[in-house]
Design brief:
314 residues; alpha/beta; ten-stranded mixed beta sheet
């Protein structure tokens, strides 16, 4: 089900571009046909989290992210739009993923950069469907997915969940003969069983662990990201907020006992944003039900803000 944008309000300091904040600048999409920019599209769903035995509440994340973004000052972002939310009703996750994919494809095909607001990490497969339908990838081009996450999300199961996205993408891409390369940053060894590591190797998911990123810092992340970008033509970035330590991001579906420092995660995201190959990004697993003083929402919103601002400058 499609829901109109909501949740944009905040401080007003005056008229003019020098006073702009997100809530002043954001417009419904499509407000001006033909004028491309950054378009937000929410995915209000926690059915995938429920199926994956996580704690529900992520369906409230899109509006929490809008609220946290609203009063952030804008210095250089280009046109900003909000296309509203695709809402998963009851257990109808698969239908919701198809609907999100259809809407995302329409926005991408119009020449926009898109940011998905999750919702559970079942948004990953929904985003993939949109990319494929928008025909941004052909057999002569190489598509890459970078996943900032404590988990591989490559479970094989009878039904889709927040933990099956990358296995679903792999199976779908094989069927369509699409060349996709994968990289996951922040993998937690205690949070992924041996079979998930083995399946990651079979699928071809390269990974860097949370321990490695803590030991070597942003320089390792930036080097790995740089090497990865050289191998692809189009990039989709997905950020599971549970990649961050629980002290920084308590309001997620599955808090991280260790996690990757915020400054390392941010450096990786900015490095990615500086690439002209980035077409779409999404942020998943914010759970406002368990957030403290909007700590997680504000952190995720800052990462979204910095991503959009950096990308607009390339």
């Amino acid at each position: 089900m499609k829901r109109a944008p909501s949740g944009w309000s905040g401080r007003n300091d005056g008229e003019g571009a020098e006073h702009l904040r997100w809530h002043n600048a954001i417009r419904p999409w499509p407000d001006i046909p033909g004028e491309s920019g950054t378009v937000l599209l929410g995915f209000s769903s926690d059915e995938g989290v429920r199926r994956n035995l996580g704690r529900p509440g992520a369906r409230k994340a899109p509006d929490a992210l809008r609220s946290a973004l609203s009063s952030m000052a804008i210095h250089n972002s280009g046109p900003l739009y909000d296309a509203g939310d695709i809402c998963v009703e009851g257990e109808e996750l698969e239908n919701g993923q198809l609907e999100f994919g259809d809407m995302l494809a329409q926005i991408l095909a119009a020449g926009n950069f898109t940011v998905g607001l999750g919702g559970g990490h079942e948004i990953t497969y929904a985003s993939y469907l949109g990319f494929k339908k928008a025909s941004l990838n052909t057999q002569s081009e190489r598509w890459g997915i970078i996943n900032l996450d404590a988990h591989f999300d490559n479970r094989q199961a009878d039904r889709a969940s927040s933990g099956t996205g990358f296995f679903q993408i792999h199976e779908d891409a094989l069927w369509d003969a699409i060349d996709i390369k994968y990289l996951t940053l922040g993998i937690s060894s205690p949070s992924n069983t041996q079979i998930l590591f083995e399946r990651a190797n079979e699928i071809g998911i390269d990974h860097v662990t949370d321990e490695q990123l803590n030991r070597h810092g942003a320089s390792l992340g930036e080097r790995v990201v740089g090497d990865f970008l050289e191998q692809i033509d189009h990039l989709y970035l997905t950020v599971d907020i549970d990649v961050l330590p629980a002290s920084v991001a308590p309001g997620v579906s599955a808090p991280a006992a260790y996690g990757v420092p915020l400054e390392v995660v941010r450096a990786c995201i900015l490095n990615i944003a500086e690439s002209s190959k980035l077409r779409h990004a999404d942020f998943a697993e914010l759970n406002p039900e368990f957030d403290i003083d909007q700590r997680t929402a504000r952190t995720a919103a800052r990462l979204i803000h910095d991503l959009v601002t950096t990308r607009s400058e390339i």
